[in-house]
């Protein structure tokens, strides 16, 4: 390749970028601080809305306020591991043992965290910060134990982008403090649904901290609390029951977003499958001994990206909507997030699977851009976007989510194959930067230190990058190489050689300031329930990667006498390591391959490691497995770039006052909108006086009371926060009146918290409420 010379403009841009980066690094150094004061969060339990014996107001509004002081505690400093708290083991409830089946416990708890002043995690799009809420996020826990209680396993599906290593380590530490050795690193799986509309800020490795624009302890603690609470509820609710398994295809909801990568796999291998995505859904049905419903876990390969990167409302996307529909159906009479039945739609090998089934088109011309580089003739890759089936992203989310719900409902109803047999689990920590992979009996290869390729910056057809990088890049660019070298230093020849043909954009495995940029130590884990094996994957497997791992693990079990095992790929578990493609897909260097951070032999390494775990379970030699090197737990992290400021109400107004009331009358299908004097919603994640930002309430004349018919977890409601200057803000509440709404008198209430700080005094958080004038819903 001929040497490239730089124009005066490019030289000036390089100089400008270097100077700006130097200033940014200096600012980050100032922000890099010991965790000093970390806010504690007390969970106030489930919020059940009681009736209030107040007659409907005919005009005006009300706003009430009370005070709650901000809670704080001092953090201890550690650079390598969590600080183990004294073990206060919770007494084990007596278990009835004389039955066939398992002890089953299910639990669900809110883990939403901040819904403002924080980035949304998934698209890595600058400026895509949270500005309200569409649906709440939940942690859903399932505990299975043998009749005598001797062995048990825990599977937790969480409505977040992915499970971070820091999150898992903290949860395990607190479980040990409460339950002793009952719930451990080997028998607890934490899996993210991979919604791209949840808050960021709960990571410890620098790449993710930068993408999150800092570490948010407020959100981190709320997530930890929610996960633990869901496990606590499941533990308390354990009862004898049975588990059934069923499988079936879901059609019309997926496309492969990197078909040109998929075609790199051997034709003989591709010929064994009818599709370039995995269409099979696996469903576990859980019932008590009377046959009454307890819960469901579904695994299906689909990216929760129906809500695109223009969205600013926290929500659980298409898989969350599927959970919402099934739980609402099974928990009749309960508000969303309440009721005994728990339904988790968990992630699988979704790496190259998109729900935007209309495929990629140039948004400026309308022509297809389904090509090897996902580019458009005019505008390049930034114009190539895949669209969902609906009229907008909300509609697409419902269409895809409803299809998954309907199929899961059918499979649940017809499930008849009972899961029986012992429970087992195996886990290791592995240094993924130094795994020797046996390619055959005579040749080996090794994994690499982490690195991201050029096509990582291109994004995907579900959410493009912002600098007009293209997918499929197998050569670097002198312009960006020079900028990287000036700011971060040059990647070593060793890492460049190891990752070929990936052109390295960021050599993250050689960067360690202020902390390592990517994890070296990774969890590998399998839990088995009789003939079902759940593989906990620390990232996003592509379709063919998942097929190869399932086949290899199944063969390993069979070779040691465990025949006909069903192997499930459970994605986004325990620690996040981006993507895992096949060796052949890696050669094409589209987004997924450029994001396979441990190099071309990553999949082979995982297959080798998971086969080893399967062998240990099948031969009852789990006790002989080495723990592996324990991962670090960093206490010094970059604080969020958005600081806390005092909230202010306009002159003559107070928080919760109505600025724009609803109209007097509405019909089904119309949208009620009320605007209140608002305050920063992140204060409410810190002090949980209320478990919702809004309620829609209907007046019942017979009891002269208000009944809550909807809250902010309902799909029909939307809470928008509009941030103004100098602490001023508005809150807009919307209710999209559903077909099921009954005629009558209604009102909307707003629940919030404002930050107040007097001179020389600590900040306090004040709770307030606002109530709209009444309005009427009438029949057509």
TrEMBL record:
<dbReference type="GO" id="GO:0046512">
    <property type="term" value="P:sphingosine biosynthetic process"/>
</dbReference>
<dbReference type="InterPro" id="IPR031329">
    <property type="entry name" value="NEUT/ALK_ceramidase_N"/>
</dbReference>
<dbReference type="Pfam" id="PF04734">
    <property type="entry name" value="Ceramidase_alk"/>
</dbReference>
<feature type="binding site">
    <location>
        <position position="194"/>
    </location>
    <ligand>
        <name>Zn(2+)</name>
    </ligand>
</feature>
<feature type="domain" description="Neutral/alkaline non-lysosomal ceramidase C-terminal">
    <location>
        <begin position="610"/>
        <end position="777"/>
    </location>
</feature>
<keyword id="KW-0862">Zinc</keyword>
<feature type="binding site">
    <location>
        <position position="579"/>
    </location>
    <ligand>
        <name>Zn(2+)</name>
    </ligand>
</feature>
<keyword id="KW-1133">Transmembrane helix</keyword>
<dbReference type="GO" id="GO:0046513">
    <property type="term" value="P:ceramide biosynthetic process"/>
</dbReference>
<keyword id="KW-0812">Transmembrane</keyword>
<dbReference type="GO" id="GO:0017040">
    <property type="term" value="F:N-acylsphingosine amidohydrolase activity"/>
</dbReference>
<dbReference type="InterPro" id="IPR031331">
    <property type="entry name" value="NEUT/ALK_ceramidase_C"/>
</dbReference>
<feature type="binding site">
    <location>
        <position position="303"/>
    </location>
    <ligand>
        <name>Zn(2+)</name>
    </ligand>
</feature>
<dbReference type="InterPro" id="IPR038445">
    <property type="entry name" value="NCDase_C_sf"/>
</dbReference>
<feature type="domain" description="Neutral/alkaline non-lysosomal ceramidase N-terminal">
    <location>
        <begin position="102"/>
        <end position="608"/>
    </location>
</feature>
<keyword id="KW-0443">Lipid metabolism</keyword>
<protein>
    <recommendedName>
        <fullName>Neutral ceramidase</fullName>
        <ecNumber>3.5.1.23</ecNumber>
    </recommendedName>
</protein>
<keyword id="KW-0746">Sphingolipid metabolism</keyword>
<dbReference type="GO" id="GO:0046514">
    <property type="term" value="P:ceramide catabolic process"/>
</dbReference>
<dbReference type="GO" id="GO:0005886">
    <property type="term" value="C:plasma membrane"/>
</dbReference>
<dbReference type="GO" id="GO:0046872">
    <property type="term" value="F:metal ion binding"/>
</dbReference>
<dbReference type="Pfam" id="PF17048">
    <property type="entry name" value="Ceramidse_alk_C"/>
</dbReference>
<feature type="region of interest" description="Disordered">
    <location>
        <begin position="43"/>
        <end position="94"/>
    </location>
</feature>
<comment type="similarity">
    <text>Belongs to the neutral ceramidase family.</text>
</comment>
<feature type="active site" description="Nucleophile">
    <location>
        <position position="354"/>
    </location>
</feature>
<feature type="compositionally biased region" description="Low complexity">
    <location>
        <begin position="57"/>
        <end position="90"/>
    </location>
</feature>
<dbReference type="GO" id="GO:0005576">
    <property type="term" value="C:extracellular region"/>
</dbReference>
<keyword id="KW-0472">Membrane</keyword>
<dbReference type="InterPro" id="IPR006823">
    <property type="entry name" value="Ceramidase_alk"/>
</dbReference>
<dbReference type="GO" id="GO:0005737">
    <property type="term" value="C:cytoplasm"/>
</dbReference>
<feature type="transmembrane region" description="Helical">
    <location>
        <begin position="12"/>
        <end position="32"/>
    </location>
</feature>
<feature type="binding site">
    <location>
        <position position="540"/>
    </location>
    <ligand>
        <name>Zn(2+)</name>
    </ligand>
</feature>
<keyword id="KW-0479">Metal-binding</keyword>
<keyword id="KW-0378">Hydrolase</keyword>
<dbReference type="GO" id="GO:0042759">
    <property type="term" value="P:long-chain fatty acid biosynthetic process"/>
</dbReference>
């Amino acid at each position: 390749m001929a040497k490239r010379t730089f124009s005066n403009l490019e030289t000036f841009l390089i100089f400008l970028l270097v100077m700006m980066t130097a200033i940014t690094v200096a600012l980050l150094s100032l922000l890099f601080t010991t965790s000093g004061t970390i806010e504690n969060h007390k969970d106030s339990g489930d919020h059940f809305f009681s009736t209030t014996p107040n007659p409907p107001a005919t005009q005006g509004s009300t706003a009430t306020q009370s005070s709650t002081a901000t809670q704080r505690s001092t953090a201890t400093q550690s650079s390598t591991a969590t600080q183990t708290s004294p073990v206060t083991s919770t007494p084990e409830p007596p278990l009835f043992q004389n039955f066939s089946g398992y002890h089953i416990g299910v639990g669900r708890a809110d883990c939403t965290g901040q819904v403002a002043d924080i980035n949304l995690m998934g698209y890595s799009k600058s400026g895509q910060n949270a500005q309200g809420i569409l649906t709440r996020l939940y942690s859903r826990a399932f505990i299975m134990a043998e009749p005598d209680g001797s062995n048990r396993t825990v599977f937790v599906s969480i409505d977040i982008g992915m499970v971070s290593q820091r999150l898992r380590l903290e949860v395990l530490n607190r479980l040990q403090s409460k339950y002793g050795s009952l719930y451990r690193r080997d028998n607890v799986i934490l899996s993210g649904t991979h919604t791209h509309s949840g808050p960021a800020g709960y990571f410890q490795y620098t790449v993710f901290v930068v993408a999150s624009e800092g570490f948010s302890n407020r959100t981190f603690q709320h997530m930890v609390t929610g996960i633990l609470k869901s496990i606590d509820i499941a533990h308390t609710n354990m009862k004898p029951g049975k588990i059934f398994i069923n499988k079936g295809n879901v059609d019309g909801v997926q496309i492969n977003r990197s078909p040109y990568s998929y075609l790199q796999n051997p034709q003989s291998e591709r010929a064994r499958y009818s599709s370039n995505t995995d269409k099979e859904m696996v469903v576990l049905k859980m019932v008590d001994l009377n046959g009454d419903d307890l819960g469901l876990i579904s695994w299906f390969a689909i990216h929760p990206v129906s809500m695109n990167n223009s969205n600013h409302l926290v929500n659980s996307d298409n898989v969350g909507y599927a959970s919402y529909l099934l739980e609402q159906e099974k928990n009749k009479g309960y508000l969303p997030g309440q009721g005994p039945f728990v339904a988790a739609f968990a992630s699988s090998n979704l790496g190259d699977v998109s729900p935007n089934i209309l495929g990629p088109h140039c948004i400026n011309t309308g022509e297809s851009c389904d090509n090897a580089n996902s580019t458009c003739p005019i505008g390049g890759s930034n114009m190539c976007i895949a669209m969902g089936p609906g009229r907008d992203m909300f509609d697409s989310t419902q269409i895809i989510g409803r299809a998954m719900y309907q199929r899961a409902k059918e499979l649940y109803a017809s499930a008849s194959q009972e899961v029986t047999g012992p429970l087992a689990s195996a886990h290791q920590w592995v240094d993924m930067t130094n795994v020797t992979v046996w390619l055959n009996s005579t040749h080996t290869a090794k994994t690499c230190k982490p690195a991201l390729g050029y096509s990582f910056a291109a994004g995907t057809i579900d959410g493009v990058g912002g600098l007009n990088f293209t997918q499929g890049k197998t050569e670097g660019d002198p312009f960006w190489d020079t900028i990287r070298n000036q700011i971060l230093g040059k990647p070593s020849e060793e890492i460049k050689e190891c990752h070929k043909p990936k052109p390295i954009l960021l050599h993250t495995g050689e960067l360690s300031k202020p902390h390592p940029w990517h994890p070296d130590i990774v969890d590998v884990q399998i839990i088995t329930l009789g003939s079902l094996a759940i593989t906990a994957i620390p990232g996003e497997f592509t379709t063919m990667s998942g097929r190869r791992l399932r086949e290899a693990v199944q063969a390993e079990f069979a070779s040691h006498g465990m025949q006909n095992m069903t192997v499930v790929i459970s994605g986004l578990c325990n620690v996040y390591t981006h993507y895992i493609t096949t060796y052949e897909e890696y050669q094409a260097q589209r987004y997924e391959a450029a994001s396979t951070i441990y190099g071309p032999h990553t999949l082979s390494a995982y297959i080798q490691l998971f086969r080893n775990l399967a062998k240990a379970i099948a031969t009852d030699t789990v006790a002989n497995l080495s723990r592996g090197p324990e991962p670090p737990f960093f206490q010094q992290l970059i604080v969020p770039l958005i600081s806390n400021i005092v909230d202010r109400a306009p002159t003559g107004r107070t928080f919760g006052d109505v600025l724009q009331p609803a109209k007097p009358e509405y019909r089904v299908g119309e949208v009620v909108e009320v605007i209140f004097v608002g305050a920063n919603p992140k204060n409410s994640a810190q002090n949980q006086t209320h478990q919702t930002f809004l309620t829609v309430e209907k007046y019942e004349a017979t009891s002269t009371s208000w009944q809550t018919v909807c809250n902010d977890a309902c799909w029909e409601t939307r809470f928008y926060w509009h941030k103004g200057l100098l602490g001023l803000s508005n809150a807009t509440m919307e209710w999209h009146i559903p077909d099921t709404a009954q005629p009558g008198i209604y009102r909307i209430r707003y629940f919030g918290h404002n930050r107040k700080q007097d001179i020389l005094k600590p900040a306090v958080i004040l709770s307030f409420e606002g109530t709209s004038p009444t309005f009427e819903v009438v029949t057509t």
